[in-house]
Amino acid sequence: xxxxxxxxxxxxxxxxxxxxxxxxxxxxxxxxxxxxxxxxxxxxxxxxxxxxxxxxxxxxxxxxxxxxxxxxxxxxxxxxxxxxxxxxxxxxxxxxxxxxxxxxxxxxxxxxxxxxxxxxxxxxxxxxxxxxxxxxxxxxxxxxxxxxxxxxxxxxxxxxxxxxxxxxxxxxxxxxxxxxxxxxxxxxxxxxxxxxxxxxxxxxxxxxxxxxxxxxxxxxxxxxxxxxxxxxxxxxxxxxxxxxxxxxxxxxxxxxxxxxxxxxxxxxxxxxxxxxxxxxxxxxxxxxxxxxxxxxxxxxxxxxxxxxxxxxxxxxxxxxxxxxxxxxxxxxxxxxxxxxxxxxxxxxxxxxxxx
Length: 355
Hints:
Helix 2 runs antiparallel to helix 3 (152-212). The protein is 41% helix and 22% strand. The chain folds into 4 domains: 1-34; 38-49 and 248-342, Beta Barrel (Elongation Factor Tu (Ef-tu), domain 3), CATH 2.40.30; 54-74 and 217-240, no CATH class; 83-212, Helix Hairpins (Orthogonal Bundle). It is of the alpha+beta class.
């Protein structure tokens, strides 16, 4: 017959067994401990880290900024020796002046050529008038010779005058052709001179850009990282001088695929920040990753060979930090956080921004 009263050890063992079962149920979020809140500690603060590099080469003459300082857009971060670039600007302007002078000279030559054409045309008109007079004189002398009134010598002289007048007409026409060809040449060369002016203007603009690029400025507001450039250092385009971290940050929380069911855009999220004593910051779901993290790996896993062990994949969820939270100003890219999302919560009514 079984005993109605069990020993204390048996009671403790039963209670311990019940406690262990309850602990397992709680750990795996199984009934009666099933919850709608999903949490992950695989979450980090992210931000755009901009590498500051020069666009021209030269020696650094000034580094007015210090490590980890706040800067505003347009603040000078470093200065490259600009003496050579100033001379290049002056040289480009001199070349432009020369090209403009050549173009102006061409315009003067065009006016002179047009005046020459007018003069040649006038000479043709004058030569034609002289030819007409010589022709009339020759015809008159020929008539007189036929009547015996004038001598053969007069006829020969009139004929010579007529031939000379004809030669003058031909010479004037040739001069007109030369003037017209000269004008055509000037007009054809004009395009080359205008292109030369345009090229010189572009060279001036490029020289001005290079000179302006000797002053390296902050592209936006933010905080600089460690200053890697030193006074007197020779730098080339692409040399990493420092990094600039803007104030705009967000959180990427990597949830298991089994946790995502029920999550929606704009659902509120609670962010616990390790570096701030696990104090809480509010956020909202902004976007979901289009693929699991393994799909973005350089070497993707091959599950077609060997033994297969199913592992829950993780997908990134981008969390937007809600505005108006003083603690948010202390967030920095790379910080570790813990993100919790209640899948039963309704999406926040405010429209999403920063997409």
